[in-house]
Amino acid sequence: MLNYFIRRVLYALPILIGVNLLTFMLFFVVNTPDNMARIHLGAKYVTPEAIEKWKVEHGYDRPLLYNAGATGMSKLTDTLFVDKSLALFAFDFGAADDGRDIAREIRHRMWPSLAIALPNFLLGLVAYLSFALVMVFFRASYLDLAGVVLCVALMSVSGLFYIIGGQYLVGKLWHLVPVSGFAPGAEMLKFLLLPVLVGVIGGLGDSSRFYRTLFLEEIHKDYVRTARAKGLSERVVLFRHVLGNAMIPILTGAVVVIPRLFLGSLIVESFFGIPGLGSYTIEAIQAQDFAIVRSMVFLGSVLYIVGLLLTDLSYTLVDPRVRLE
After folding, report:
1. Into how many domains does the chain fold?
2. What local confidence, expressed as pLDDT, does residue 325 receive?
3. Is 173 exposed, middle or buried (0-12, 13-18, 19+ CB in 10 A)?
4. Residue 2 has pLDDT above 80, yes or no
5. What is the mean pLDDT of residues 167-191?
6. Do 189 and 125 share a structural domain?
7. Which domain holds residue 121?
8. More confident residue, 262 or 148
9. Does 125 share its domain with 69?
10. Looking at the whole model, is its pTM more than 0.70?
């Protein structure tokens, strides 16, 4: 197991380094610090002196890769690449353009994102698997057909419709929960109920239809016929054997959503006024705060790779072939 994990980590490191280099190229070569200064200063105040002053204030006045004016190792270390790119590997995100510490903001905002994403993920997974298993249990019947039609109908509707419709129906007409906002402690529940409900319903169509396809592929295999020949009931065959053997693709789709658990949903958090990392990223994009955007891109890459590693490790729990390898 340890050797398997070490190999997966070694495979993941080049991916993270490549993402970091690509991010550096996009933010400092394609979009130069001079362009960042022009965006923040505005057309009326763009002068060479103002651009240089803005770069000095925000730490963008150093060379990209090699500082010829420095001495010793500072020629390589006193550069934008080391300060703005390599520092991310130590989770040193620096300060935003407005002076706030990015790491502190991330630590503060990750909890609202987790508060909405974790129940959305867990309740959604249970709902999607249960609905798919019910459709497969009653396969080739009118109930199965109705379930497929419902899934296709739900898939055909934009996610914004569920958000706006839920806010109008549940919040405006029925006055059951607040339309938007957030509060810590026990008051958090009333603010999270509607976003979680909208998230689960919005993903019911495509996820349940995907899981139904997985189960239908498994149900025609030899081990299912063997289980039936032994006299096992259809319920036991479906919920124990078929579900267990379909766990690999289920885990593949489930574990890789870990970045979304921490980073939040950009659209949901913005529409419901939740001060999480998703809304933090949207605000940074609107404010053209490239330091925050760069940090969030790197953090998302790290979490995605962690999700892939956990996916590979989870395979060893459900597939004996991986353990033997």
Report:
1. 2
2. 55
3. exposed
4. no
5. 90
6. yes
7. 103-324
8. 148
9. no
10. yes
